[in-house]
Design goal:
Order of helices and strands: HHEHEHEEHEEHEHHEEHHHHHHHHHHHH
CATH topology of the largest domain: Spore Coat Polysaccharide Biosynthesis Protein SpsA, Chain A
Number of domains: 3
Strand order of the largest sheet: 3-7-5-8
Largest sheet: 4 strands, mixed
Radius of gyration: 27 Å
Number of strands: 9
Number of helices: 20
Structural class: alpha/beta
CATH class of the largest domain: Alpha Beta
Length: 536
């Protein structure tokens, strides 16, 4: 059935028009002058059999009505804010309330699909439990992915974020919402458990019972009305009701506010993945996605809902610290940049900044290093990870610190002082043959001449030259005791930068680092070296 439907879609794309009358009705509403950012509301109702099975029946073999598939395109214009994904979710929340007002809502990204038919039974066990259902806002499943290459070179599995950390959250008030694979109790999006926020019209109330047919004119008219771009003006939507506005990471922001209101959540991690999805297959797309997250997290961290201050008052210290761990994620760029450049420039100038190998403080550094990495590895391995994937996760942590964390922090700072920056952009997960082949072979894809790659390339160049200088001095018999810890650190970074060196000098394919990035990075690295020689 899937292959037949796929062929029909491809046929429509090749032909440029739709033969089926009902499906054509949707596209006929898009007239000349409509654009992505300027168009009226479009709502089209079809049922499962008409779309998937291509029949005219609306009942199954036992006479029960089949599920409805409802296409919704909310109204947009250039003068009204649309609040990105959070705004789209709120429109769907209102339209679904008008049509069915079902008490359970599943939010799912468009690249995710169901992988286990037992998932609904699992969540109903929780939502039907009288001991917890009164305060249960949502049930979150971990995001898992198909199509990952064998070693997950870009660490897109996010094992700590999607599997390890939620287990810790689950021991407190529950995990945060991660944007997909999450079942919400509709009531949770209308105020706290004991402090409900009534909607502006009774038809949107979680307790409202829909008594009219879904295709009645009255229902459709109201659905179009609540999907309008000006409907939310002077209402609580985005502040006290629905998915929350004010951050590019609406998932994090919404669950944080729900937990502050007194709701709890649950983490459900069955052996068989409930949902599977796609991952970006180029480094630029991975870093762009992370940069957007960094900006969104800072928007929450430096708002009046700061997790350390506001959160500790309403959730308790431990839960506020758990959310703060994510909110201040981007500041990892500071220690990563420090350890990627300062010891290296000091070594180039024969200056020691760490304890000597014979000093007691040396062992403290070794203990902290091995302890931190050891704990991280144990958590990763117990969650089903492999040694190679863990190593790639550490490499990507360093790469993110030198690129998206840094640029995300700078972009948020510029945005805060009123300087215009690039707008919201979606993460591309489209498959290109060349990209797919290189990704499948575990080869890094740089290709795009982005400023994101400049600090990373600089770090690779400076670390390589400082390591070679230190190694040469050691082979000549020079006393390197005072620089031993710096050599160990630099060697560790050089090992992590091997894909960068290959992309600079050894590769001839289209995925190598663009020449202009290499030239700029080399020039700035030399300038850094001469500047450091004046300081040391």
């Amino acid at each position: 059935m899937y292959e037949a439907m796929k062929m029909k879609v491809e046929h429509v794309m090749d032909k440029g028009k739709i033969a089926d009358e009902q499906r054509r009705q949707v596209f006929n509403k898009w007239i000349k002058g409509f654009t992505r950012m300027n168009h009226p509301t479009v709502i089209q109702i079809m049922n499962y059999e008409q779309v998937i099975l291509d029949t005219k029946h609306d009942k199954d073999n036992s006479g029960r009505l089949m599920p409805n598939l409802i296409y919704v395109s909310r109204e947009k214009n250039n003068t009204s804010p649309h609040h990105f994904k959070a705004g789209a979710l709120n429109v769907l929340l209102r339209v679904s309330a008008v049509m069915t007002n079902a008490p359970i809502i599943l939010t799912q990204d468009c690249d995710m699909y169901s992988n286990d038919p037992q998932t609904l039974l699992r969540i109903l066990c929780y939502l039907s439990d009288p001991a917890i259902k009164s305060n249960l806002a949502f049930i979150q499943f971990p995001q898992r992915f198909h199509g990952l290459n064998k070693q997950d070179i870009y660490a897109c599995e996010y094992k700590h974020h999607f599997q390890v950390n939620p287990m810790g959250f689950d021991g407190l008030k529950g995990p945060s919402y991660i944007g997909s694979g999450c079942f919400f109790h509709r009531r949770a999006l209308f105020g706290g458990p004991s402090t409900p926020v009534p909607p502006e019209i009774p038809e949107l109330s979680p307790d409202h019972v829909v008594s009219k047919p879904i295709q009645s004119q009255e229902i459709l008219s109201l659905a179009h009305h609540v999907a309008g771009c000006n409907y939310e003006n002077q209402t609580n939507w985005g502040s006290k009701s629905g998915f929350r506005y004010g951050s590019l990471v609406e998932d994090y922001n919404t669950s944080y506010r729900l937990h502050c209101e007194g709701w709890k959540s649950l983490f459900c991690n069955p052996k068989r993945a409930a949902f599977l999805g796609d991952v970006p297959i180029t480094l630029f797309d991975v870093l762009s996605q992370n940069k957007r997250w960094c900006i969104g997290l800072f928007e929450v961290a430096f708002s009046k809902y700061n997790p350390l201050i506001f959160g500790s008052q309403y959730m308790g210290v431990l839960m506020s610290l758990a959310y703060s761990h994510y909110a201040f994620w981007p500041i990892w760029c500071i220690p990563v940049i420090f350890y990627s450049f300062l010891p290296q420039l000091a070594l180039l100038n024969q200056f020691s900044i760490f304890p000597k190998l014979s000093e007691p403080w040396f062992f403290l550094y070794v203990f902290l290093f091995l302890g931190a990495y050891g704990q991280d590895f144990v958590e990763f391995f117990l969650a089903g990870g492999t040694v190679r994937r863990w190593w790639n996760c550490q490499r990507m942590w360093m790469i993110r610190g030198l690129s998206c964390y840094l640029f995300g922090s700078v972009e948020y700072l510029l945005k805060s002082i009123g300087i215009s920056t690039h707008g919201f952009s979606l993460t591309s997960k489209a498959l290109d043959d060349e990209h797919s082949k290189r990704y499948g072979r575990g080869i890094f894809e740089f290709r795009v001449p982005s400023p994101l790659f400049v600090p990373l390339t600089m770090a690779a160049i400076i670390n390589l030259f400082s390591f070679l200088l230190g190694l040469t001095a050691f082979m000549r018999g020079n006393n390197m005791e005072g620089l031993g810890l710096q050599m160990i650190l630099i060697g560790f970074i050089v090992l992590n930068c091997l894909p960068v060196y290959g992309a600079i000098a050894l590769r001839n394919d289209a995925g190598k680092i663009p020449t202009q990035i290499t030239i700029i990075s080399t020039f700035v690295s030399v300038a850094f070296y001469y500047a450091s020689s004046l300081c040391f």
